Amino acid sequence: MEGIDPMDVLRSNLSRVRLPEPTNRIYKHECCVSFDTPRSEGGLFIDMSTFLAFGKDYVDWNYSKSGNPVYLHIKQTKKIVPEDRPLKKPTLLAIGVEGGFDNNEPEYGESYSIVILPNYVTLPFPSVELPEKVRLAVDAILLNEGVEKREQLAAWTADKKQVSAYAMTLQQIDNGVIVPPLGWKCAKCDKKENLWLNLTDGMILCGRKNWDGSGGNNHAIEHYKETGYPLAVKLGTITADLEAADVFSYPEDDSVEDPLLAQHLAFFGIDFTSLRKTEMTTAERELDHNTNFDWNRIQESGQEVEPIFGPGYTGLINLGNSCYLAATMQVVFSTRSFSARYYMNQNLKVAFDMAPYDPTVDLNMQLTKLAHGLLSGKYSVPASEKDGSAAPTTDAKQEGIPPRMFKSVIAASHPEFSTMRQQDALEFFLHFLDQVERANSGKPELDPSRSFKFGVEERILCTSGKVAYNRRLDYILSLNIPLHEATNKEELEASQKMKAEKISEGKDVSSHEIVRPRVPLEACLASFSAPEQIPDFYSSALKAKTTAIKTAGLTSFPDYLVLHMRKFVMEAGWVPKKLDVYIDVPDVIDISHMRSKGLQPGEELLPEGVPEEEAESRKPVANENIVSQLVSMGFNHLHCQKAAINTLNAGVEEAMNWLLSHMDDPDIDAPISSGAQAAEAPIDQSKIDTLITFGFHEELARKALKASGGDIEKATDWIFNNPNASTSSDMDTTSSNNTTPTTTDAGLPDGGGKYRLFGIVSHIGTSTQCGHYVAHILKDGRWVIFNDNKVGASINPPKDMGYLYFFERINS
Question: Closest Cα to residue 231, out of 291, 171, 282?
């Protein structure tokens, strides 16, 4: 290239330079096929036609594939900053914002140049000699925030409280109520904590019952349902700093700001300047969870955890409430099936060549990128080595890799996972496997998700002596926790007695003093297979309802068995509660006895079909109250009947929504038949499986999803609001022809029933939608903790505190 003017080379390729438009996705923080960044040794190359970014080792691939020769090269170099920069104590559950956790991030300087491939002809930037089109394009790229920045580590924080729509027009009732400065008690029970003052009538009532059984008795929200009075303030959070007071709006279902709070409090004789704080706000209580005993135990805080580096020991940066994803993917890529599919048997070049125009939206490419990032060891080095400083110390840490592009792709078909909110690791795991299965459809030999899949068979024995068999496929074995099988009942009784005494004396019980039930995993497995009564089961043999017995077993044993512990259960009155329990999990389990036997010699199947008179009795009937309300709004009577039937008479709002979305159905004017609901679109099985993992029966889950238009959150609310919607009356299944394995069942991996524990995903928090997830994985003969980007040798893995347990089959 000697004798050729670099500027002439650039001018000859100006047609391959584009000016970015507002709708263009510009990548400038991370390589599309690796985790290289501008801080990497070779910097980052941005294609000035597609605006995709590539590391030094991969930019040639893009040139060969696209033919685009002009790139903006960005290189970041670390600046020297004082080492004694003080750390601040966090006051906000956030990272990278004022009051949040201090990242202590170093500062970097940037340098730029224009590079033209294939010979890497380089021109400096900025330079007035560059063509105007190039200067404008580079300026636009540098001014753009960058697609990756939206998922950056410092991008998450709690939502700012909004001013309530009810605050400025709140009508207060002058009923002579004067609230004293202390000595408060719920007006309907003896609760003296978690008390809320209704700002309309001055009633003092206890708050909601929490998932873990703590909190109040729901009297405050019941009062709202009876009266419609919208705002309440939590007593004990009112101080001279009124902005810190906890005000809740029931109709808006959120913590809110009340600009007139001082005036509203004065109405009931409250001088806020004289009150002192005695209760935590909701946000503070959530922050407090970070320092309690269980958090420290699961994260092994306070212990000298030896950091580990190298292949298979790469941490994942928290993108903001993404620990559910990090913990799950660390375990998944520790399996042979996924590491072989996306690492050992597929290199980055092959995945990139197979990918479409934009590799950032291709699941196969991003799974391969994630696998190579986690397993190659390229990014698992002490941060000090990357910076070229002194040798690593025992407290050295790695930077980790940010799974931004993978999260963006896997969440594209799921509105919740695309948010920055915390999610359920189980729900994500099931969604992930579903997406992998879809991506490998038609190529079962390549599909690694099959290593988790197995068959489940339910046997229903009628009092007639005849049987029915039902089969399904699943990825997880969801287990109830039988607390009555606890092995430490005497300790529990003594602890409860001590707790009652301390409470009566007005003393607090520390987390170290609490004794939790210990239930053997064997008891949980036994509860899955144990006989279960089904009342009101319609027997096609007896032509009447009777009580049947259901048992369950597995038709195949997967390569990897995932056990989900149902720690969230429903108490009487449909009140959700989290079980505070330890599970004693052995290193090796044998589930050979759980294999189902199928139809046995001498067994007779229940006859198929339902008698005509029974079918007639099942003809759907619309709730006339719902129908009449809809008719009064001007809708057709027949249409209103169909709306009520197809939402299972859930309510006027549900029926209205159905009606508005089905007005143009071609059969909307057809007469109602007993099969009216059968014409509805099928319910997504993955959503049914999600509700099953919450502890609901399949038929109830199906019914709730049908009534709520397939929305999981609304379906859960429907179940809570319809406690009489029992599954038993609908479990009238007669018989099944699936007495032999189906082709899909027969093609699944199968083997012996002995398994070894190799992975644990633990969760701490009051619900799966808050708190923190951590993974512990058995690697190279030792347990390793993966806590976001922190990877180290585990000293005391919390085997008894798991939410998901991963077992690998032991091949004889």
Answer: 171
Distance between CA atoms of residues 802 and 566, nearest Å: 11
Q: What are the residues whose beta carbons fall under 8 Å from the beta carbon of 159, sequence distance 6 or more?
A: none
For Cα atoms 585, 587, 593, give the angle at the middle one, nearest 5 degrees. 80
Q: CB of 610 within 8 A of CB of 670? A: no
Known binding residue 697? Answer is no
Give percent helix, percent strand, percent coil of the chain, each to the nearest 5.
Answer: 30, 20, 50
Structure tokens at 168: 């400025």
What type of residue sits at position 776?
A: H
Residue with the bigger pLDDT between 211 and 246: it is: 246
Q: Return the SS3 of 76.
A: strand
CA gap 67, 62 in Å, rounded = 7
User: pTM score, two decimals?
Assistant: 0.70
Q: Three-state SS across 369-434?
A: HHHHHHHCCCCCCCHHHHHCCCCCCCCCCCCCECCHHHHHHHCCCCCCCCCCCCCCHHHHHHHHHH
Q: Token match 């048992």: residue?
A: 551
**414: annotated binding-site residue?**
no
Give, in degrees to the nearest 5, the angle at Cα 315 between 312 and 320: 150
| Nearest of 600, 337, 568 to residue 457 by alpha carbon | 600
Contact of 15 with 28, CB cutoff 8 Å: no
- pLDDT confidence of residue 159: 44
Long-range contacts, stretch 382-387, CB < 8 angstroms, 24+ apart: 382/307, 382/309, 386/39, 387/78, 387/106
Q: Cis link prior to 251 (omega < 30° from 0)?
A: no
Instruction: Tell me the residue ranges of DSSP E strands in 250-367.
Output: 254-257
Q: Give the pLDDT confidence score for residue 67 in this predicted structure.
A: 95
Alpha-carbon distance of 538 to 731, in angstroms, equals: 7
Q: Which residue has the tokens 């079909």?
A: 609
Instruction: Tell me if 662 is assigned to a ligand binding site.
Output: no
Backbone Cα Rg of the chain: 31
Residues catalogued as catalytic? 323, 772
The model's pLDDT over 491-540, given as tens digits with 9 standing for 90+, comes to 888 888 887 877 777 777 666 677 889 999 999 999 999 998 888 888 88
Determine whether the annotation assigns residue 524 to a binding site: no
Q: Which residues contact 114 (CB under 8 A, 6 or more apart)?
A: 10, 70, 71, 72, 73, 122, 123, 124, 125, 130, 134, 138
